[in-house]
Hints:
Glutaredoxin, single chain, two-stranded antiparallel sheet, five-stranded mixed beta sheet, about 15% strand, alpha/beta
Amino acid sequence: MNRIHDRWSANLAVAAALTVIVIAAGCSTSSLKELSFFRDGSAETEKAKSKQDIAEEISAAFHGQDSATLAIWHESFEDAQDAAMRSGKPILADFTGGDWCHWCIKLEEDVFEKEKFKQWAKENVTLLELNFPRQSSAVKSQNKALARQYKVTGYPTVLLLTPEGEVLGKLGYGADVNKWVQSADDILSR
């Protein structure tokens, strides 16, 4: 283990007081992303980045995307509510069977993975994924309780909620990202 650590250490120059280096399997040092936890380098004015900023940078590094257009999905309803309260944006809650539901997977591919949706989401909503995987999951009990609370009976069901959790509207699968985003905008503008 020390040989691997020493080899990577010799190739990396860490500039900030606290730095995270994201290493994806099979990458070289030339493709590493360095993520500093501080906005600037001077000791007198160091300001910690928010957990959201850090999460966006780390997720962007793993997905090879610019964090400016990255859509961050929360898995905890409480975390999504906190983020929605801070931003003043409604919550888009996606009730999904991400590893078994054909239409959920199609919604992910046809809408949620598109740049138009990501940009729209970043500007308009706080994202919450409520997944019901076939495999067990730590958040499965939270998601079941929320599905009962919001009377979700099929997947995918996408609810637009106020930060307090009140339903603004409901969407499902849609193959066209432009029409899907327009439908979501129509609900938000009511």
